Amino acid sequence: MPPDRSGTYVLVLRLPRSATVTVGRLGRFRFPAGWYAYVGSACGPGGLAARVTRHLREPKPRHWHVDYLRACAWPVAIWYAVGIRKRECTWARVLSDLPGASIPVPRFGASDCRCPAHLIHFGSQPSFDVFARAVGEPLLQETLNV
């Protein structure tokens, strides 16, 4: 589990079959089967550990956009960096530039910035090593057995 310190993370999810999901006020969307990378930050009490633990818990109240997708997608990994530096938008941009990346829902996870989205879809599992090289800074990775 990531530490109880502030940081930025990518929650990697697997959606085994396509699903239609209502995402709060964003609306109803069809999510194709595949892999999803959701970028977030955790600066509040409990830091990364608290945020990741919340994402893994089911059922839970739906608060963030990813909570709606999480109801039908399985978390498989968490990639993260500790620190107060804001990396969320940069990481979302890096992910969207990777081969095979697409944005399934405009503005998903990006209601408080000007990014196209903080959720990126991949047809095959995204590579931690490729992402870490593209980001250009040391990252940590944990496989989740949920």
Account of the 3D structure:
- The protein is an alpha+beta fold.
- The protein has one domain (7-143).
- Helices cover 23% and strands 32% of the residues.
- The protein contains four helices and eight strands; from the N terminus they run ββββααβαββαβ.
- The strands form two sheets. The protein has a six-stranded antiparallel β-sheet.
- β2 and β3 form a beta hairpin.
- The protein is globular and about 35 Å long.
Features:
146 residues, alpha+beta, six-stranded antiparallel β-sheet, two-stranded antiparallel ribbon
Task: Give a nutshell description of this structure.
By secondary structure, the chain is of the alpha+beta class.
Overall number of strands: 8
Distance between the termini: 12 Å
Task: List the strand order in the largest sheet.
Answer: 6-7-4-1-5-8
Please state roughly what percent of the residues sit in beta strands, choosing from under 5%, 5-15%, 15-25%, 25-35%, 35-45% or over 45%.
Answer: 25-35%
User: Pairing-aware structural class of the strands and helices?
Assistant: alpha+beta
Low-confidence segments, ≥5 residues, pLDDT <50?
none
Helix content: 10-25%
Radius of gyration: 14 Å
What string, H for helix and E for strand, traces the elements in order? Answer: EEEEHHEHEEHE
